[in-house]
């Protein structure tokens, strides 16, 4: 993995939807390929994925507090 992404735009704005498998058709592949080449976006992906995992541990009572 490298931080050299060439001319591609970063994909950080798509990471939440990517983690939740909610991207439009044809968007997941380019995001996945970008994450293989861009260390900064890959690190951001890990943070988003961890946050989603932690949110899954909450229940309704936790959210109402």
Please explain how this structure is put together.
This is Zf-HC2 domain-containing protein. Pfam families: zf-HC2 (PF13490). The protein has 65 residues and is an all-alpha fold. The protein has one domain (12-64). Helices cover 57% and strands 0% of the residues. It has 4 helices and no strands. The protein has helices at 15-19, 28-37, 39-55, 60-64.
Secondary structure layout:
Elements: H1 15-19, H2 28-37, H3 39-55, H4 60-64
Shape type: elongated
Total count of strands: 0
**Total domain modules:** 1
Span between N and C termini? 41 Å
Helix-strand topology string: HHHH
Task: Provide the low-confidence segments as ranges.
Answer: 1-5
* Mean pLDDT, all residues: 85
Instruction: Profile the largest sheet.
Output: none
What is the C-alpha radius of gyration, as a whole number of Å? Answer: 14 Å
Keywords: Transcription, Transcription regulation
InterPro entries: Anti_sigma_zinc_sf, Znf_put
Pfam family, one: zf-HC2
Protein name: Zf-HC2 domain-containing protein
Task: Jot down its keywords.
mainly alpha, single chain, 65 residues, disordered N terminus
What does this entry show, briefly?
The protein is an all-alpha fold and 65 residues long. It has helices at 15-19, 28-37, 39-55, 60-64.
């Amino acid at each position: 993995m490298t931080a050299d992404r060439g001319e591609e735009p970063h994909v950080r704005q798509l990471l939440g939807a990517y983690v939740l498998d909610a991207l439009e058709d044809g968007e997941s592949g380019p995001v996945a390929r970008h994450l293989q080449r861009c260390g900064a976006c890959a690190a951001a992906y890990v943070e988003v994925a961890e946050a989603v995992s932690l949110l899954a541990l909450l229940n309704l009572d936790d959210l109402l507090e």
